[in-house]
Amino acid sequence: MDFKLLEKTLSDHAQPHFRARQVWAWAARGAAGFEQMTDLPGALRATLAERVPFSSLALQVETRAGDGTVKALFRTVDGHPLEAVMMSYPARSAARVRRSVCLSSQSGCPLTCTFCATGAMHFARNLSASEIVDQALHFRRSCELDGPLPSNCVFMGMGEPLLNLDSVLAACERLPDLGISHRHTAISTVGWIPGIEALAQQEMPLRLALSVHAAEEALRSQLMPVNERHPLRDVIDACRAFYARKRRRVFVEYVMLAGVNDSYAQALELARLLSGPERSTAERRPGATRTRRAPGGPQDSASRGERNAAAIFKVNLIPYNPISAARRAGENGSLRPAYTGSTPAAIAAFRDALRSRGIPTTVRLTRGREITAACGQLAGKGVS
Ligand code: SAH
What we know:
alpha/beta, TIM Barrel, ten-stranded mixed beta sheet, two-stranded antiparallel ribbon, 13 helices, 12 strands, binds S-adenosyl-L-homocysteine
């Protein structure tokens, strides 16, 4: 719902201030239209229905995968495509399913990560806060009456959320009314440093996720050209500063590409990067005047580095989701590289190498691949 238009329409009709909140409360609870808002005067409901489109997005196609993943392709009023996804996960304990929505912050993406389908499509523009919230509201409305509602949100759809931070944060402020708390909301970035710094300064306890994909600068620049602008070492420093301020662990995403970034040596390089420079006790505790010598020498200082990383970073290995040639074709006809995903055995070995260095590591469950709804597959084209 276009909140600005709603507020203007309400004030044009001399409505009290609380009306906007009233309308929002209904929408957030999954109302399908103004006519359901029974505590609004009937005439006002009719006026709103006439003047304020209930959603700022038009749903074009919705597809459902066998694993319960739903992908929605929308168009903005000015015709730009965007996609959003709702995933269902079996709950860890009881029979209850957990649901998570994956939202887009831009139509297309101005960055050109070589393994991502969104990076090959035309970048149109930033989405407004209303357009972001409307993706979540769409799924909120589509949940069965007795079914679980989404409780988690990730900004891992199309676009780079930190290039559209104001709208993303305005959308995040509304998500708790849908049952999605700030603690259960994650913003994923390629490592846009000014955005990480801005995110660290605001109050909501949002989660930060960082797409790393390679620990060596040269390889990362090849995979993600944005690394030339914001080199990984500086990005990691910004993440440490984020942690120092927010005390929220940073999730590291690492897509597993066979023969490119999945060797044992590369796992150790990633562990070293995340463990960070070994610091003395005095450095770690500003104000401490005397450093007590740790028994055991270098061995002990290495494990200090590991403990430090374990507190700040958690790695999530992402099995590569294939991108068809049609989706790899750039606008100018250039074809971007084809990658092969690492084998399950290579992923497990990489995970174990990180764990052996004290870095908490999990492997992401793949959802929605058959409907091209999985990470990196969103291209604004529906299923084809
Ligand atoms: N621009 C932000 C938000 C998008 S998140 C970011 O890059 O973090 C989408 C996640 O899926 C990112 O971690 C991205 O690197 C990853 N991804 C992209 N293409 C992928 C692919 N083909 N297979 C698996 N993951 C992919």
